[in-house]
Specification:
By secondary structure, the chain is an all-alpha fold. The protein contains seven helices and no strands.
């Protein structure tokens, strides 16, 4: 009888601990007019790598169009400047990698209702994408940190009282 009671208590504690975790929020899906914004960002990154005049300015303008949710645009502008410096460094993104990075930037600037775990996973995806593309680990880690700063400004979802345990 004692062992059954002990097993039930352990199961109840485990179930309670799992229930207190912050639930995942819904990821936004780009509306048709925003798909063009994502493609513009990818194209701007590729143009920047090719040395096209004005590509850095176009990239900043296109990314900042998505930063409408930010009260303070400084983290997003710093992210763009760091991205420009990174892309000027000689490692070339493929069109597919540029598209994936543009999608991650879009998500990072528009996903307001995601959990902390989802935000960390998105930042990790950015770092992994850059590392896989051939950028050094220090640069990928620095971009991950900038991306996390922007996400912290965008995310509006507050933990509920029961998610704090």
């Amino acid at each position: 009888m004692t062992q059954v009671l002990r097993t039930l208590v352990v199961c109840a504690i485990a179930a309670s601990a799992m229930a207190c975790r912050q639930a995942d929020g819904a990821l936004p899906v780009p509306e048709p007019d925003r798909v063009g914004d994502i493609e513009d960002i990818a194209r701007d990154m590729l143009n920047l790598q090719r040395g096209a005049p004005g590509a850095a300015q176009e990239l900043e303008e296109d990314v900042m169009k998505l930063a409408f949710l930010l009260e303070d645009e400084a983290p997003a502008r710093t992210l763009v400047r760091d991205l420009v410096d990174l892309l000027d460094g000689g490692v070339a993104l493929s069109p597919e990698e540029a598209q994936q990075l543009a999608e991650q930037l879009w998500l990072g600037l528009t996903a307001t209702e995601i959990s902390e775990r989802q935000a960390e996973a998105m930042a990790d995806d950015v770092a992994t994408l850059l590392s896989d593309a051939g950028f050094d680990q220090a640069s990928a880690t620095a971009m991950r940190a900038r991306f996390s700063q922007v996400q912290a400004e965008v995310i509006q979802r507050q933990r509920r009282w029961y998610e704090r345990f």
